[in-house]
Amino acid sequence: MAFDGITTKAVLTELQRTLIGGKINKIFQPTKNEVILNIYNQQNYTLLLSANPDYCRIHLTSHTKPNPQTAPNFCMLLRKYLIGAKIIDISNYDLERTVQIKFETYNELNDLVIRKLFIQIMSRQSNIILTNENNIIIDSLKHFEPYLPANPFEFAKIAKNSFLAISSAESFIQFVNQQNLLEILPNSLIGFSKNFVKNTLFSLNIDCNHYSNQDLIKIYETLQSILVHFGTNQISLKILENDYFIVPDFSEKSINSSLDEFYYKKEQKSTFLTSRNNLLRIISGNLKKVYKKLENINRKLQECENMDIYRKYGELLTANLYKINGAENQTQIILEDYYENNAPITIPLDKKVNIQKNINQYFKKYNKLKNALVIVTKQKQEAQKELDYIESIVFSIENAKCIDDILDIYSEIEENVITKKDFQKKQKNKISKKKPKEKQIHLQSTTIDGFTVYIGKNNVQNDYLSLKFAKPNDLWFHTQKIHGSHILLSNPENLEIPENVLSECAKLAKENSKAKLSSNVPVDFTKAKFVKKSPGGKPGLVIYTNFKTIFVK
Predict the structure, then answer these.
(1) Would residue 302 count as lying in a domain?
(2) What is d(CA 221, CA 224) in angstroms, rounded to the nearest whole number?
(3) What is the reported pTM?
């Protein structure tokens, strides 16, 4: 993305028409790199100033952001100096990306003074700096040399040429002098990014190395048409998947509103991916713990498999006690195994103790493992339930499509996650938006041959869809023993459902499950009245009866 000099100038031209003469009502700092100014100038405007290294920019915005309960120090300082201030100028030099907003306000002695806010849009060097009328820095958002309090603010020295100083196409041809256009234009002219030049050449179908003077005239006229129409609807923002460019074209939308929508979607996607990955990382940690727990449980169960042999040793030794003489110092003894047609069996002995104590030890081991088997078997059932639930969360996270889906899962985990303290500690501040506990659930739906079909996207939606929303005669679909979405075919009139509709619903259940890439997947379906909540089960876990199965190839 290139918030270059061309874009900066286009934004400022619009801001000059709308904000000059306006007064600052409120100031917020929703994130560490963003400042928002609420401005009244016959109507309310919201100006976003961002020093985010990835999304540095300035433009009007219509999207609100949650604010911290305690305002950061820089926000408090801006409120002290700028609340009630009047904007008297918004400018930048040439096509540079350092923006100056000049304010007129009153100081503590009620004297009229000038304050200046400089916004530097320079990737990692981006900053927001407040100065007095003499450009002495009062404070800055980021403290690094030379932008420290009490230092004089100085514009960066410009080593490039100004396109605005090129007065004709002939001068432009002489300036280029048959050099590579992707090198000479962005590297030698103020405000032209390489991507902007590349897109301009592409739109004009001009090769950067092989071009004519007529081609250069086209480039010059295109650039001039953009500069001439700054602040009008004769230029627009051409938006690609991950980039945008100012182009000479009619647009009903302003550059500010186009940029606002572009960055809003970009930040939403970034927030979604970050939040999803954070959740996956935390849940994956829980998943590993449960797998490790199951390994230990299975190891104990393997030990319990030997309990009958210890009982057998004890019984054989007890039955042959009268025969055993002088066996105290032996490490083993061979007896007849009456469980196996008197076949010889070798029984290990502890030579440090007598035969009776060996017998007692074997029976003690047997009883210990017998009791352990009951406990460990129950532990395995509980651990398996934990595993199933956490895997269902992983499935929901992997299939989430937007930040609201993540917030649904976040709310669910807050109430049901196994290691709740760990989750809250790691997840704190990861998702800035607070989801209310009581929120209306919006179900995804589609239509198949006139029948409405609903799809649960996570465990909370699955529970709501299957146990609250569903009517008794609605048909419920789910992949057999495979994590997936609950699918509900609405059938309030208890109609006969055609085979093709059943097949499409089963296919939908398969496509919204972990088996979506598999073949010959079994999908169970039954009436919603036969679907019940699993006793003590976690969200999304149900039991069902009276079902039939469709195999989806």
Answers:
(1) yes
(2) 5
(3) 0.74
